Amino acid sequence: MAVDRIIWKIILDFIILAGVGFALLAVTLWMEPYHRGYFLNDESLSLPFKEQTISVSVLASVGFAFIAVVVLIVEITRDRQGKGIGDKYIGDSAVPGWIWESYQTIGVFTFGAACQHLTSDLAKNVIGRLRPHFYDVCKPIPRADSALNQLGYIVEYDCYADADPSLIKDMRLSFPSAHSSFAMYCAIFFIFYVQVKCKWRGSKLLRHAIQYAVFIAAWYVGLSRVVDHMHHWSDVAAGFLIGTIYACLVFVYVLKPKTASTLPTTWVDPPETVTNTLPRAALAR
């Protein structure tokens, strides 16, 4: 009976992940972004088109691989120190505790990543904010016979005939920055995970220096989106906020990691011994 319950939990996890993944795929492939208008001579939309410094595939691959490797190293180390959760049994088969913990942590991380990406993509399509390279990609031609265009805000327009359809759709997906959201989600999740599970003797700054380096890497990803003319600064700020919120919620309320009291003793600073200096008579009172 217990075996069936564990297996069904695993199956349910994959069904939920698949459901979020399908929703994300549906938004990406089939949802049409809102066609927002523009003001004539808007300088914020007049920047030239540039190739991306960090592509979606590179960011996703590095982000997932980095978190997976960190989790595996930490859980294997804890298991070898004898401070893991111990073996989990499915029927007569023993599953090492580090595998079970890694599965749960990486699975929860993946679920959170999919949810934050779905949130970002849904907002992109609903809001339809134009990217800074709008003029360069679209080369818009206002419709002269449109009464809606008479007030200076161009609502009805056409892009030039040779414009790339994929770029035309993408130019309407500026807010928020999904790159910034995912990068900051990975960074904050990593910072929390290391803070809880990786305390050790020695340098007090080593752990925090590593955390800071990862945070700066995520910060750089966001800045690169502005430099590449892919986003306005406010798009990046919103992406950072979304990623941070999801990382906090997922780590604290979904993953619910074990506290530092369960960490390997070789990683934790020994408690300070407090010597009672009160005279014996005072203790008697």
UniProtKB/TrEMBL annotation:
Record GO biological process: phospholipid dephosphorylation; phospholipid metabolic process; signal transduction
Stored Pfam families: PAP2
InterPro entries, alphabetized: PAP-like, PAP2/HPO, PAP2/HPO_sf
Cellular component per GO, a single term: plasma membrane
Subcellular location: Membrane
Membrane topology: Multi-pass membrane protein
GO molecular function terms attached to this record: phosphatidate phosphatase activity
Positions of transmembrane segments: 12-31, 54-74, 173-193, 205-223, 235-255
Coiled coil: none
Family annotation (SMART domains): acidPPc
Location (main, coarse): membrane
Residues in Phosphatidic acid phosphatase type 2/haloperoxidase domain copies: 106-251
Alphabetical UniProt keywords: Membrane, Transmembrane, Transmembrane helix
Family, per entry: Belongs to the PA-phosphatase related phosphoesterase family.
Record's protein name: Phosphatidate phosphatase
Lineage, opening ranks: Eukaryota, Metazoa, Ecdysozoa, Arthropoda, Hexapoda
Gene (UniProt): LOC113505334
